[in-house]
Each structure stands twice: as C-alpha cells, then as structure tokens.
Specification:
Order of helices and strands: HHHHHHHHHHHHHHHHHHHH
Mean pLDDT: 90
Strand content: under 5%
Structural class: mainly alpha
Radius of gyration: 22 Å
Low-confidence stretches: none
Number of helices: 20
Distance between the termini: 64 Å
Helix content: over 70%
Length: 382
C-alpha cells in the first residue's frame, strides 16, 4: 500500500501544478489572450497563434526550451533547436525570401517617390534608439529594440541575434509581432489626427503599367546597389530580392510556389513557436520587458507619424496629387499597413482606392527597415 501511495504522490508532484510560479500562470493567461485575439478577432493569426502557443508550452513545461547542458541526458528541449535557428538569423532570412516571392514591387517601381515615404517611416526606429539609450540600455540593445519601430518581426529577430541580444529577443519579437497585428488599431488615430478631411479624400492618378523587364531588373539592381553600400544587409535584402526574382523571372515557377507557400509557412511555424517559447515568466516578467513594450509603441507611433508627415509635404509639393495617408504604409507590416491606408481613405470617400498606391511605401518600408538593421550592424562592426 505504501508503494502505491508513494507512486501516486510522485506522479502528483510531477504535474505542472506543483512546479509553476505565479508568473507562469500570468504568462499562460497572456498566451490565452493572444490566442483569443488571433482566433476570435483575426489579428494576424498566422503569427499570433504559433507565438501564443509557444508561450503556453514554455510556461507549462520550461524544459521544452532547455539547452543540452541543462538536461541530464544531454538532449535539449524541442523548441531549443528551433530557437537556435532564430539566434543564427536563419529563419528571419528565409521569411524574407518568402515575403519577396509573395510581393509585387510594381507599385514601388511605378512610383519611385514611394521610397521617400518608406524611408520617412523609419523615423520611429531612430527615435526609439536614442530613447532606449536614455532609459539605460547599451547601444546594441537599444539598436535591437529600436527596430520594432519598423513593424518588422523578422528583422527585429535578425538584428537581436546578430548583435548578441538573445536575452532580449523574446520581448523584442513579441512586441514587434504584437504591434504588427495591432496595426488596424494603432495607426488610424494617428493618421486622422495629422491629416485633414480634404487630404484624406484626395484621389491619386492610376499608376503607370510596369514592364516585365523592369520587374526582373529591380531585384537585381536593388541587391547590387544596397549590398554594395551596406554589405551587412545582404542576408535580408538578398533573400527578399531573390524571392522576388523567383516571382518575376517566370522560369522558376516551382521555386516561387515553394518559397511563397510550403517553405514560408513551415518557417512561420518554427519561428513563431520558438519566439513564443522564449517568453518564460523568468525571462519576460521584468522591468526591461515593460520598457521594451513602451519603446516599441513609441517607435511604431513615430514611424507612422513620420510617413504621414512626409506624405503631407509631398502632397503640398505635388499640388495636392498625393494622399498623405499612403505615407503611413511606410512601416514594414506588409500588406496590413497598406490595407489600413485604404480603409481610412475609404472612410473619408468610399470611392477612393489607395491600396495599390500604399503598397509602394509599404514594400519600400521593408527595404528601409532592412537597411536600418544593416546600418546598426555596420556601426557596431558586424
């Protein structure tokens, strides 16, 4: 009888109920909130579902992220090996290849001025960088945190790994992806506050047709120019443009389909669950995390503001031919930010169609954020 009792007691004490802290329970609750937002509200479910589930797993069973050195049998936890691919910047680079294969750069090619709005929307990155230093973060940590302002999760993870800020990677990635999913909530109030009703009603001329040759040459030229100036951008810009070349060259249909579908979604699963699993209560519940979340929001707000304000300036200079709303799409959340520009414009005038115009700054923002990351790597000698 004592053997049975002892066995049952051992089994009972092996359950998670006897090993979790209040912090673990809090993080489990946060994970459930994220799952609700993703499933019930449709906030970027492809990102939030795996991230939230990874968060759930690691706070119930921390050993799922344990390194081999921490385990008696010398074998690490499942998600530890996924996470190594984040630290080595492999998964973020593959995400960029998939994004390139899915993205039409035609609107950007047709309206090169879009590059300016994509660049202006990176203002939030630099504002957050200096604020992070003011709040006590070292230069590399500040740089990794600031990329949240580009609303680009893969680039945030990429830069954190390159700068050796893996301890902050979880909060940075969760903040970046959370703000990406909240684009429809965060951006409209800023857009409306800094534009007039008349500006929001501006209808833009139809974009010129872009030739196949232009679309083929674009990724090649951008790769050469950007990577020659900032070689550190090659992993991100190079993969983005390679994926786009697959799409536009017309001779590798199988590679295009693989990069934009099967590979893309496999990588999203691996990256999302491993990022979520980096948010154990011990790593996530601290003052630095709160600072990162606040800095991310400030960076994102300033990025949106910077794009809108340059859009207003270009509107004035063009004699009212450019709708300033498309400047807000200069953050890297493709294509969500462009859709928000369309939505806010349509609220002012239901016959106004800004989506394709907004895609120009939107894809320019992806390139701009990668360039910002490359700039920080160059500054810190990587």
């Amino acid at each position: 009888m004592s053997y049975v009792t002892e066995t049952l007691s051992n089994l009972l004490h092996q359950t998670a109920f006897f090993n979790l802290t209040w912090g673990n329970y809090l993080m489990i609750l946060v994970a459930c909130v994220f799952l609700y937002l993703a499933i019930a509200k449709g906030f970027e479910p492809l990102l939030l579902v795996p991230i939230a589930f990874g968060m759930l797993l690691v706070n119930i069973y921390p050993d799922i992220m344990a390194s081999p050195e921490e385990m008696s049998n010398g074998v690490g936890g499942l998600l530890h090996y996924f996470y190594i691919l984040d630290e080595w910047s492999i998964l973020p680079s593959l995400i960029f290849m998939g994004v390139g294969a899915m993205t039409d750069f035609g609107p950007l090619i047709a309206n090169p001025k879009s590059f300016l709005m994509g660049a202006a929307a990176q203002l939030g990155i630099y504002v957050a960088y200096f604020l992070a230093i003011f709040l006590g973060f070292n230069g590399k940590a500040a740089a990794a945190i600031s990329i949240i302002g580009g609303a680009d999760g893969p680039t945030s993870i990429f830069l954190a790994g390159k700068l050796g800020q893996t301890a902050l990677m979880g909060p940075i990635a969760v903040a970046a992806y959370s703000y990406m999913s909240l684009v429809p909530i965060i951006q409209p109030p800023i857009m409306k506050a800094f534009t007039t009703e008349e500006e929001r009603k501006i209808k833009m001329e139809q974009l010129r047709p872009v030739t196949k040759l232009e679309k083929i040459l674009f990724p090649i030229v951008i790769t050469i120019v950007v990577c020659m100036i900032l070689p550190t951008t090659a992993p991100l810009v190079g993969m983005l443009m390679l994926g786009n070349l697959f799409r536009e060259c017309g001779v590798v249909k199988q590679l295009t389909e693989t990069a934009s579908n099967a590979m893309m979604y496999i990588v999203v699963i691996l990256l999302g669950t491993s990022v979520g699993a980096s948010t154990s209560a011990e790593a996530f519940l601290n003052v630095d995390t709160l600072k990162i979340v606040v800095l991310g929001l400030v960076a994102f707000a300033f990025g949106t503001w910077g794009g809108v304000m340059l859009g207003k300036l270009m509107c004035k200079l063009s004699g009212g031919k450019i709708n300033p709303l498309i400047g807000s799409a200069g953050v890297s959340a493709v294509p969500m930010a462009a859709r928000v520009s369309q939505k806010v414009g349509a609220e002012a005038d239901p016959t106004n169609f800004l989506l394709m115009h907004a895609m120009g700054p939107n894809v320019a923002g992806v390139i701009g954020t990668a360039v910002a990351a490359g700039t920080f790597m160059a500054i810190y000698g990587l």
